[in-house]
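Structure tokens please, single chain.
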Amino acid sequence: MFAANSILFVPGSRPERIAKALGSAADCVCIDLEDAVAPADKDSARDSVLAALPQLDRHRVAVRINGTMTRAGLKDIIALAESGHAPALLLVPMVEHESEIVQLARVLDNPATQLVPLVETVAGLRRAHRIAAQPGVAAMMFGGGDFSAQLGVELAYDPLLVARGQFIMACANAGVPAIDVPFIRLDDAAGLADECRKVRSLGFAAKAAIHPAQVDAINTAFGADAAALAEAREAIAAYEAAGGMAIRHNGKMLEAPIVARMRAMVAREAQKNEKETIDA
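Here you go.
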């Protein structure tokens, strides 16, 4: 189960930043070989990341490769497959068809590496439900930057609301968590908090960050607080004691879909706590 609330991106061409990123409170650090790396630096960045991976905590580190339909992406996939040190999580950009995920999984041939496809185009959004349903997909990420460019709109909440809603439905249909695009206005703390609140209310489970200063706000927005967890556990117990029948509890109606959401929240928090214990 994908349990991260925050994913902090760091350029693969700047290996000195990896340690700083890992020193943050980010649940996951994603080393980026795609957008953050200039075309001329792709090969050297790949070599640097491959050399660093054996020394890093594979359960807290992810890698974003280049697109599977590009030469750089094919090199990334083969190099990771042959290295024997693929991370636990691999982010796959610009996915437009489920066959890309099928082929990638075959080449990697490593069930210990889970995949996070990025949906960044209209074509990808149309097939997002099929992409999300592929074996090995742990979560999906909404790639708002390229999406907004294709639509010719600002990378902001309102212009992408319809696309986000469709993306969430595709993820929910497959039963996988949805990760939101980074908030690009680095000096707008209030704007970040507001967008986190809005996308969580839509159903997103996590949000990406492009600067360590964004991590605390994201963790606060997406983390389950103690009161909510206690209420969920109490409600689940009451529902089970009633034999799984719809009941009134603390002034609210409890029925199967509501309890299912509560169980998912409790399970996700347990998974995160288990991971933190292992890392420690």
